[in-house]
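Re: that backbone. Tokens:
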């Protein structure tokens, strides 16, 4: 399976089945944060806010790397993201 397929599968397991993969990822993030300003479809902005609420700051890449590490994922950011989406669990 590709990372994209894993992401679609994991989002579906978590109840996000409508729209494109990006739509589903946006819905998952919006479900976890209060989007107060800006474009509600801005995926990078939603990730930034979500990571900040989880206690991780810096660039999205640095914060996501640290967040994924806190969840037990190792390796480069691409490895961590691939393992995160492939893990098959309900999203945090």
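Recovered sequence:
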């Amino acid at each position: 399976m590709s990372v994209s397929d894993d992401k679609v599968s994991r989002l579906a397991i978590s109840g996000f089945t409508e729209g494109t993969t990006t739509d589903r990822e946006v819905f998952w993030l919006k479900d976890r944060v209060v989007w107060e300003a800006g474009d509600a479809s801005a995926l990078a902005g939603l990730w930034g806010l979500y990571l900040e609420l989880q206690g991780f700051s810096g660039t999205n890449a640095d914060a996501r790397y640290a967040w994924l590490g806190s969840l037990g994922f190792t390796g480069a950011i691409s490895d961590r993201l691939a393992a995160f989406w492939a893990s098959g669990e309900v999203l945090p």
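The radius of gyration is 13 Å. The chain is about 60% helix and 0% strand.
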